[in-house]
Amino acid sequence: MSDFGLQGKNALITGGASGIGLACARWLANRGCSVAIADRDEQQARSAAHAVGGTAFAVDVRDAEAVERLAATLEERLGGVHVLVNCAGVLQNPLPPAQLTIKEWDLVVGVDLRGTYLMCAAVGSRMAGRGEGSIVNVASVAGLRSGPLHAYGPAKAAVISLTECLAAEWGRSGVRVNAVSPGFTQTPSVARSFELGVLDKEVLAQSTALGRLVDVEEIAAAIGFLASPLASAITGANLPVDAGFLVATSWQAYGGLRPACR
Predict the structure, then answer these.
(1) pTM above 0.90?
(2) Rounded to an integer, what distance in angstroms lies between the CA atom of residue 77 and that of residue 73?
(3) Best label site of 11, 19, 96, 244, fewest CB within 10 Å?
C-alpha cells in the first residue's frame, strides 16, 4: 500500500470518533501518520484512537480557549501538526424557519462554521509559522445547492468560502487549504435519520447519477489525497464526493435520469 508521502506526518482529525472522521483517522494511520483524534465525546475518542493506534483529546471546537490549548499541546508534544482534517460537524433536520429554533441554528453554525474557523486559525497559523502544512475542511453538497437546511447549508457554504480565503492567506507560507463536499453518506447520523423517517434512503440513492449513497471510506480517500503531497499544487479547491448528486438533480426537470444501458 502506498503511503502517499504521508509516512511520519502528524495528523489531527476533529470529529474523529465516528463516521467520516473515524474513516479519515484509519486512512491516515494506515499510511504511516501519527494520528490525534479530537472529539466532544472523550470516551468515543479514546476508543477510536485505540483502534488506530493514535491519541485522543476531548475538545468542543466552539470553545476558542480549548482549541488554542489543544493546538499548543500538540505543538509541544509532537512538534506540530502537518495535516488537519476539520470533520467535526452537526447535522440538521429539514425544517422551515418557523420550526427551526435559534438554539439549534446556533449549535449547527457554531460547530460547523465557528469550530472549523477556530481550528484553522489555531493550527493553520502554526503551520504557516513553520512553512508547511495541509488542511482539509469537510463541507457538504448542501453548501452548493439550496435545500430545507437553513442552518447547515449556509454554514457549509461559508466553510467553502473560508477554505478559499485561507488558501490565499497562507499559500505563500507553504500551507494548502482545501475542502471536500460529501453527498449523502452512510454515516451513523444519516442511518439514524433513515430509522426516524427523516430521510428516505431509496429516494436519496435515486437522486444521484450513480444510483447509490457514498461510503465513508470514499470520503476519507478523497480527503487523504488532498492532504497528501500528491495534491501539492492544489489549494483553495472544493471537491464534491457525492456519487453524482450535484449533476443529477437538475435532470428532474426533464423527467429524471435515463435508465442504465444494458
Answers:
(1) yes
(2) 6
(3) 96
Which residues, other chains included, contact 149 with Cβ-Cβ below 8 Å and sequence gap of 6+?
92, 94, 142
**51: Cβ–Cβ under 8 A, 6 or more apart, which residues?**
22, 26
- Chosen CATH of 10-184+215-245 out of 3.30.750.24, 3.40.50.720, 3.40.5.10, 3.20.20.70: 3.40.50.720
Please tell me the distance from the alpha carbon of residue 178 to that of residue 38, in angstroms, as a whole number: 20
Give strand pairing partners of 215. none
Inter-residue contact 154 to 202 (CB < 8 Å): no
Active site residue 117: no
Percent of the chain clearing pLDDT 90 (strictly above): 89
18 is written with which cell numbers?
465516528
Cβ–Cβ < 8 Å for 237, 166: no
In our burial notation (b when 16+ CB lie closer than 10 A, e otherwise), range 186-223 reads bbeebeebeeeeebeeeebeebbeeeebbbbebbbbbb
Q: Supply φ then ψ for residue 214, to 5 degrees.
A: -100, 145
d(CA 227, CA 175): 10
Catalytic residue (choose from 57, 152, 170, 184): 152
Short-list 31, 107, 34, CA closest to 13: 34
Element (H, E) at 207: none
pLDDT in tens, 12-32: 999 999 999 999 999 999 999
Residue 261's region, left for phi above 0, alpha for psi from -120 to 50, else beta, is beta
Judged against a pLDDT cut of 80, whether residue 1 lies above it is answered with no
Site of grid cell 456519487: 243
